[in-house]
Design a protein that fits this description.
Blueprint: H1 3-21, H2 27-47, H3 51-69, H4 73-89, H5 94-110, H6 115-136, H7 139-165
C-alpha cells in the first residue's frame, strides 16, 4: 500500500470523529473527538511529507487535549505561539501560511468557553484548511473539511437556530 493511499485511509477514519464531534453540545466531548481526529490527520500529513501541516496538527492534538481541562488565555497564546514557530521552522510557501492561519483560528476556537463561539471560529479555521488541502492535493482531506463544516453547521442549527426558526 502506498503512503498516499494510507494517508487517505487515515483521513477517512478521522472524518468519522469530525462528523460526530459537532453533534455533541458539551464542548468537552466536541474537543475529545477533535483530539482523536487530530492524531490521525497529523499522521496523514506526515505520510504526504507536508511537514508544516503535520507539525501544526500535532500541536493541535495536544491543544485539544489541553482545552478539555482549561480555557485559559495563557494556554491559548502558548499554543498560538507554538503554531507560529512551527510554521516558521517548516515554512514551505503559501500552504504553510494558509495552514498557520487556519490553526490560529482553531486555536482561538478551542479555548472558547461557549460552544457557540467555538463552532463559529472553527468554521473560519476549517475554511483555511480546506484551501490548504486543495492545494496539497489530498482529496479525502478536502472532503473531510467540507463534511466538517457541514456537520458543524448542522450542529449549530440544531442547538441554536431550530428553536428560533420553529414557530411555537
Amino acid at each position: 500500500m502506498s503512503a498516499f493511499t494510507l494517508s487517505q485511509i487515515l483521513v477517512a477514519i478521522a472524518i468519522v470523529f469530525d462528523l460526530i464531534s459537532f453533534q455533541f453540545k458539551a464542548r468537552e466531548r466536541i474537543v475529545a473527538c477533535l483530539f482523536i481526529s487530530g492524531i490521525l490527520i497529523s499522521i496523514h500529513f506526515c505520510l504526504l511529507a507536508q511537514w508544516t501541516a503535520a507539525g501544526l496538527m500535532g500541536i493541535a492534538t495536544v491543544r485539544y487535549l489541553t482545552s478539555i481541562f482549561t480555557t485559559s488565555k495563557k494556554a491559548m497564546w502558548g499554543f498560538s505561539g507554538a503554531a507560529v514557530v512551527m510554521s516558521a521552522l517548516t515554512f514551505s510557501g503559501i500552504t504553510s501560511l494558509i495552514s498557520c492561519l487556519g490553526t490560529l483560528f482553531q486555536t482561538r476556537a478551542a479555548f472558547c468557553q461557549r460552544d457557540k463561539d467555538l463552532r463559529l471560529l472553527m468554521i473560519v479555521g476549517t475554511s483555511f484548511w480546506l484551501i490548504h488541502n486543495i492545494l496539497v492535493g489530498s482529496p479525502v482531506a478536502v472532503l473531510m473539511e467540507m463534511l466538517f463544516i457541514g456537520s458543524n453547521l448542522v450542529g449549530y442549527y440544531r442547538h441554536y437556530l431550530r428553536e428560533k426558526l420553529t414557530p411555537s
